[in-house]
TrEMBL record:
<comment type="subunit">
    <text>Homotetramer.</text>
</comment>
<comment type="similarity">
    <text>Belongs to the NDK family.</text>
</comment>
<keyword id="KW-0067">ATP-binding</keyword>
<keyword id="KW-0963">Cytoplasm</keyword>
<keyword id="KW-0460">Magnesium</keyword>
<feature type="active site" description="Pros-phosphohistidine intermediate">
    <location>
        <position position="115"/>
    </location>
</feature>
<dbReference type="InterPro" id="IPR023005">
    <property type="entry name" value="Nucleoside_diP_kinase_AS"/>
</dbReference>
<dbReference type="InterPro" id="IPR034907">
    <property type="entry name" value="NDK-like_dom"/>
</dbReference>
<feature type="binding site">
    <location>
        <position position="85"/>
    </location>
    <ligand>
        <name>ATP</name>
    </ligand>
</feature>
<feature type="binding site">
    <location>
        <position position="102"/>
    </location>
    <ligand>
        <name>ATP</name>
    </ligand>
</feature>
<feature type="domain" description="Nucleoside diphosphate kinase-like">
    <location>
        <begin position="1"/>
        <end position="137"/>
    </location>
</feature>
<feature type="binding site">
    <location>
        <position position="57"/>
    </location>
    <ligand>
        <name>ATP</name>
    </ligand>
</feature>
<keyword id="KW-0479">Metal-binding</keyword>
<keyword id="KW-0546">Nucleotide metabolism</keyword>
<keyword id="KW-0547">Nucleotide-binding</keyword>
<keyword id="KW-0597">Phosphoprotein</keyword>
<protein>
    <recommendedName>
        <fullName>Nucleoside diphosphate kinase</fullName>
        <ecNumber>2.7.4.6</ecNumber>
    </recommendedName>
</protein>
Amino acid sequence: IERTLSIIKPDATKRNLTGKINAKFEEAGLRIVAQKRIQLTMDQAGKFYEVHKERPFYGELCEFMASEPVVVQVLEGEGAIAKNREVMGATNPAEADEGTIRKEYALSVGENSVHGSDAPETAAEEISFFFSGLEIV
Ligand code: ATP
Ligand code: MG
């Protein structure tokens, strides 16, 4: 059984969308096996998104992620990484399919409500960035 790291981003926590987004995950058969609300420092946001540090939107992305609390969570299920990305929809909400989280809730390509790991290696790294083994049940 696979696990992936999900983040409910500041634009969504601010609009009280945590429950609605979690309902989408659960309806898709993803189990929330760990979850906490935290506020990232600029340093932590920068480290988490280090792979994007050469991209023009890196600074803006880090400031956004540190601007308000986020909900970080571990989702578990068969093919959880791909399934989560399917439920999230395309990065740009204008290109996201009907019924996806980003189609329904995202504000823009930057403020797009959710993050999800993109591969098994990044999922493992991102889960251990936020959670110890004892916190995942
Ligand atoms: P995530 O990694 O958050 O799950 P993703 O894999 O769909 O999203 P990436 O290409 O990894 O998208 O980009 C990481 C994040 O950077 C995006 O979710 C978005 O918040 C932000 N981002 C991506 N492209 C842009 C852009 N052109 N302008 C502003 N922000 C962007
Ligand atoms: Mg990504």
